[in-house]
Amino acid sequence: MNQSASEITVTPARDYGNEVGQGWPVVVAPVPGELLSSWLHRLAMANGIPPQYFGRVLDVAVGDWSAKLDRDLPGRILNLLVERTRLPTEDIDGLALNRDPLARLRLRHNSGSGDPGTSTAQFNRLQYCPVCLKEDLAPYFRRGWTLATRVSCFRHGCRLRDHCPTCRGGIAPVRQNRLLPQHFCVWCDADLRKPTLPAEYNVHRLERLLDDLLRMHVAGHGLHGRTSLPAMLGTVCFTFDGEPKSISRLPIRDRYLFFRQLTEGMMPLQKYSEHPAIELWTRIALAASKHSDLVASLSAEILSQITPGTKKRSGHPDLTALQRAIIRLHSNRRTSLATTTPGN
């Protein structure tokens, strides 16, 4: 088509800001239990922006911007997200790990590249259950997966993973520079949902006991005179590959091995670790074998109290005996290190 320049007219498009107002075109509702960074990545992609560049929209530093917001969500960013998504403040703030009573047991953020071509390739950033991601309509990462005391999926019974099964690169959705869902590796594009092995029964039982103890700690968090259970569990250093590290700095492979060693009566501890914390880990490991019995006893006792017409008492040990056992288990807690302020 021949057409002179003078015959071409250009009509200015409407200003984007005026079109959408103060809100973003697409709003993604967070899933209960979702991690803030996971929701931000999904929000970015829904609005046509790869996660790697969405930090600029929020006016936060580039790099691993979303992992930092998980641990520290500034008020100005929270207000911006509320303004642009029109979601309730508490719904967004509840995704972050601010004011976290379990902070000492959250997996530490790794500042390395995570690229399989570098020396930091084996260090974890996030861990996940491949079956959960496969079942998700839109794959997302859970807050519970950030706990170092979690090595398996309670729903599917399989082990968690903290690396790509193909290239073994770190899990870093924030590095994604294309519009791809979170179940694709940012380094090699492989699907992250390759199945893992089932967790061993004894390991899973110990993990369940730890989870129950931490839930009780969170329920009583903030009471004066209480020693932080996460602080004690996170104090001990474990020696793997000749280097002492706290559990929050161990990759999933070493943490799973550590749990298995605990169930077998071994304790790969650094010799200079604080004694009360070592004893606490040891007692929890010993109590794990009786965990199902304790839960059954407690459940039977509660049901006998609330079931109408129930007169027959359970033959299981009463709650007084259970309380004495718990007191003995935590008898040395007050001599531990000072409390730190670490939700599930």
Written account of the structure:
By secondary structure, this protein is mostly helical. Helices cover 38% and strands 2% of the residues. The chain is built from 13 helices and 2 strands, in the order αααααααααββαααα. The protein has a two-stranded antiparallel ribbon. A hairpin with a 2-residue loop joins strand 1 and strand 2 (243-246). Helix 8 (201-219) packs across helix 11. The radius of gyration is 24 Å and the shape is globular. It starts with 15 loop residues before the first helix and ends in a 15-residue tail after the last helix. Mean pLDDT is 79; it is low at 1-5, 15-20, 119-123, 310-317 and 332-344.
Radius of gyration, in angstroms, nearest whole number: 24 Å
Q: In which order are the strands of the major sheet placed?
A: 1-2
**Secondary structure category:** mainly alpha
Give the H and E element order: HHHHHHHHHEEHHHH
Largest sheet: 2 strands, antiparallel
Structure summary, number of beta strands:
2
Residue fraction in strands:
under 5%
Instruction: Return the average pLDDT rounded to an integer.
Output: 79
